[in-house]
Amino acid sequence: MDTQILQEIGLTSGETKTYLALLKLGSVSTGPLAKESQVSRSKLYSILDKLEKKGLVSHIEKSGVIYFQAVEPGKIKDYLHQKEEDLKQLQDKFEHFLPQLELYQQDAGKVENVMVYSGFKGIRTAHEHLYLKLKRNDVYYSLGIPAYQPEEQHLYWKKDHIRRIHAGIKCQLLFNADTEKKILENRNSYSGAQARLMPFSIKTPAYFLIYKDTTLILIQSPTALGIEIVSQDIADSFQAYFEDFWKRSKKF
Prior knowledge:
Elements: H1 4-8, H2 13-25, H3 30-37, H4 41-53, E1 57-62, E2 65-70, H5 76-105, E3 113-118, H6 119-128, H7 130-133, E4 139-145, H8 151-167, E5 170-175, H9 181-188, E6 193-197, E7 206-211, E8 214-219, E9 225-230, H10 232-248
Parallel strand pairs: 4-5, 5-6
Antiparallel strand pairs: 1-2, 3-9, 4-7, 7-8, 8-9
Helix pairs in contact: 2-3, 2-4
């Protein structure tokens, strides 16, 4: 007989052997039961106690000897029904507990994820993650964009602005102070884009892209590298820097 179904509904291997032995033997003491079930007597009492709690076994005492017997197999349906009720109660309790877990996840300063991307394809992949989080009329911010960019990247950003426009996303861009005028003219020619020069003559190969809870640190030369940090606190910090620099910058 295939007894797998009994284990699937929640009985252990030892409980299954004990229950089947009781069905076969009827009312019996632990000695014959241990022999028939091939479960050691040291484990048998614990197993019988668990089966009684599940409503599948009962016992009586005769002349100082305890006899156990299995309840009729149809009672297993009652056991399944009780498991279903217990699961429903557990689901209800979890529904009340879930908001606490979600608040815990949003603890201040929590860094949810840090990913490193290498090569131009890697930093493009990281950049394009913003399309997963930003919706129409949302804005992303770039701080400290270097004057020089490899030509293939320069062409990619032009194409990406077309994609951004179709998605209805806006952007504010702060280029390093030594950036050529024609580059700013090009970026400002795209709908929803505002490009300005940094108010200070800071030059760095790295720049920052900020949106929602994400900060992306990008380096395009001499080695293309992107570091994506998902943390609301960190994004808020860089956003504050951006806003201060933006206020000090001049409209192109």
